[in-house]
Design brief:
Blueprint lengths: L1 H19 L2 E8 L5 E3 L2 E3 L7 E2 L2 E2 L2 E5 L4 E7 L5 E5 L4 E3 L2 E2 L19 E5 L4 E6 L6
Parallel strand pairs: 1-12
Antiparallel strand pairs: 1-7, 2-3, 4-5, 4-8, 6-7, 8-11, 9-10, 11-12
Length: 135
């Protein structure tokens, strides 16, 4: 009996492990892209993170010289509602920006560069800037 219980517990544990390993890959672009200022372009950076449907990305893969990025997130279902930066996410309808920006030579404070994106059913999300960037 102990042997059968052990086998059952092992199978149950493996089944739970597989369920939690599922991820969603979302492809992110921006109208001039984000986050390192390279006038006039804005490019994705290796330390960028987004929140989609309340879940924070766990990895980023940058392509096209920073103009696009693939974000890995825990398993999600469409529609996809995304916010950048992840630190700005408060609720599904509210974002918070820092009251003061940090000086970044030749660029801007990424925590103050709010962007959002939405996709009904496609994993390709085009982000729109919610703030103006000035040089």
């Amino acid at each position: 009996m102990k042997k059968y219980c052990s086998i059952f517990l092992l199978i149950t544990a493996l089944a739970c492990q597989k369920e939690s390993d599922k991820v969603t890959i979302l492809h992110a672009t921006v109208e001039d892209s984000r986050t390192t200022l390279d006038y006039p372009s804005i490019l994705w950076s290796p330390d960028d993170a987004i929140v989609v449907n309340g879940k924070t990305s766990t990895a980023i893969s940058i392509y096209n010289d920073g103009h696009g990025a693939d974000f890995t997130l825990p398993e999600l279902t469409a529609p996809y509602s995304a916010v950048y930066p992840a630190s700005a996410y408060a609720t599904s309808v509210r974002a918070i920006l820092p009251s003061e920006q940090k000086y970044v030579p030749g660029g801007f404070d990424p925590s103050a560069a709010l962007m959002w994106g939405y996709s009904e059913d496609n994993p390709d999300i085009r982000f729109q800037c919610g703030v103006a960037l000035l040089k």
